[in-house]
Design brief:
Length: 527
């Protein structure tokens, strides 16, 4: 039985021991070898003090060792916390401290950054290297375990019952409105709700060759890894250096005979617009899944013409629910310009929209905020009771037992077929390039500069990346700031996908009648 998500590997390792589980460039690892090495890693973690529920960081560029790290942590009963390997060190330090992690898996190259994160007091106790130990910079005041020590262990056996299905499996940190990233807590049971559904709904098979494009700190990666492992399929990790080169992505799909592709729409648009995708054929692709942002209809229609044999699904859901609704795109009307629906609830999940009076919306076309209930709902935000209580609320529609609803903040309408259509965000949280971004975090980074008097970030709709981010700054003194100076400042505080496309300097920010910054007027200035 699959009670925890690491069991997806253990189950398939018995069924397909000699089958390739993961492929990355010319590297491969079979299900049997993956099962063995992750058990060795788990035992090493246990020997070094890791206990059930401990948060353990994964600070590695996408690779087979990165996936090994995740599975080894889970087998040890730990909670994996994937770190964006390319994020500013100040952001990573914030996550390490907030999560309370004492152990970190990283590479020799990345390991040198750990000392820079904590120049005074390092909260980590143990660092495990996922490659051959060469030499770390002097002065890292933690125990360092080389990869060789892990893989050279003899046969190991894991203690039973290191975790149960209600224990946390992972924490994914997303953008926070206060400038501090917030950690979404996901249990094994919650994740398995999605894994089991997606494996069955999309008929993922052992012969499937599944692309893994999403970074490991992005919730799309849960499908790539665990749904594939559940089915006994082969995971093909898309190298990070391919992501910005559409022709290389196209060649990756063709050379590896990918059958299942899952990514944000902007990646597919990128391949069509800049990679001449229409001049290539993709006979092996049978399933194209997209999520994270709106897919411009004109490009979705074009893609369906390029790969006509594939099934297309629009998947919707915040990190707090993974995917909670889906919509199969059978055809698109020639005159349609609106985005395709986000669809209906996945199995074992209920979604509904509430109007301003907290009544369930049943009228076609009427707007309401989307809520979700069921085992898909996350356990809240790590160490943030106030924010958890704001978004994970008691189910007031059923007072017979204690249950949580998650309010997504997304405004939707119902159509005549019972599908939900996404209208927009209730707050200032946006999507850009598939990432969920709090504009408040960008504003907090802007305000942290000593010469910034006022600042605001606004989102402007864009057909390629969903939203462009434009920032407006009022300096304390005229001509005291430059665009280059602000970009350098921001690069130390926020990841690259949150960097604004445009920085403008103003003498003052327009205000509404109640004294708030007039964001709509500023957004209109950019059109």
């Amino acid at each position: 039985m699959v009670y925890q998500i690491q069991h997806t590997l253990m189950k398939s390792a018995k069924r397909f021991p000699d089958k390739n589980a993961i492929v990355y460039h010319d590297e491969k690892i079979t299900y049997k070898d993956l099962d063995v090495v992750t058990s060795k890693l788990a035992v090493t973690l246990l020997e070094n003090g890791v206990r059930r529920g401990d948060r353990i960081g994964v600070y590695i560029n996408k690779s087979i060792p990165a996936v090994i790290s995740i599975l080894g942590i889970l087998k040890a009963g730990g909670v994996y916390v994937p770190l964006d390997a390319n994020a500013p060190l100040t952001r990573l330090a914030c996550i390490i401290e907030n999560s309370g992690m004492k152990c970190l898996l990283t590479s020799t190259r990345k390991g040198d950054n750990v000392q820079q994160m904590f120049p005074e007091k390092n909260p980590l106790d143990v660092v495990l290297l996922t490659d051959d130990l060469k030499r770390l910079k002097e002065g890292l005041p933690v125990k360092v375990i080389p990869w060789k020590e892990i893989i050279e262990k003899g046969e190991v056996s894991l203690p039973k019952n290191l975790s149960i299905d209600t224990d946390l499996a992972y924490i994914l940190y997303t953008s926070g409105s206060t400038g501090v990233p917030k950690g979404v807590m996901i249990s094994h049971r919650t994740s398995l709700t999605f894994i089991n559904w997606s494996c069955d709904e999309f008929d993922i098979r052992p012969e499937d060759r599944v692309s893994s494009h999403a970074p490991l700190h992005f919730d799309l990666s849960i499908f790539d890894i665990f749904t594939s492992l559940q089915a006994g399929a082969t995971i093909f990790l898309v190298p990070e250096e391919f992501s910005i080169f559409p022709r290389r992505l196209i060649k990756f799909i063709q050379d590896n005979k990918i059958t299942v592709w899952y990514s944000v729409p902007s990646i597919l648009v990128h391949m069509m617009v800049h990679g001449s995708m229409k001049n290539h054929s993709f006979p092996d692709l049978r399933l194209i899944l997209f999520a994270g942002e709106v897919f411009p209809v004109k490009y979705l229609r074009e893609l369906m013409g390029i790969v006509p044999q594939a099934d297309y699904y629009n998947l919707y859901g915040p990190t707090e629910t993974n995917v909670c609704t889906y919509y199969k795109v059978d055809q698109i009307e020639p005159d349609r310009i609106k985005p395709v629906p986000i669809g209906k609830a996945c199995s074992n999940i209920e979604v509904f929209a509430l109007d301003e009076n907290n009544n369930i919306v049943t009228e076609i076309g009427k707007e309401g905020e989307l809520y979700a209930r069921g085992s898909c709902v996350a356990q809240g935000y790590w160490r943030d009771v106030k924010k958890t209580e704001s978004y994970f609320i008691k189910n007031f529609l059923n007072s017979g037992f204690d249950e949580k609803l998650y309010r997504t903040g997304d405004i939707v309408t119902l159509d005549e077929k019972g599908n939900y259509n996404l209208i927009g965000r209730k707050d200032h949280m946006i999507k850009s390039r598939g990432y969920r971004i709090e504009l408040g975090e960008i504003e907090a980074a802007l305000y942290s500069h000593q010469d910034v008097k006022e600042a605001v970030a606004v989102a402007v709709p864009d057909e390629f990346i969903t939203n462009k981010i434009i920032t407006f700054i009022v300096p304390k003194k005229p001509d005291s700031l430059t665009k280059n100076e602000m970009e350098k400042h921001l690069s130390k505080l926020i990841p690259i996908y949150m960097m604004p496309e445009m920085i403008e300097f103003l003498e003052s920010l327009p205000k509404t009648s109640n004294g708030k910054i007039d964001r709509e007027m500023l957004a209109a200035k950019t059109k």
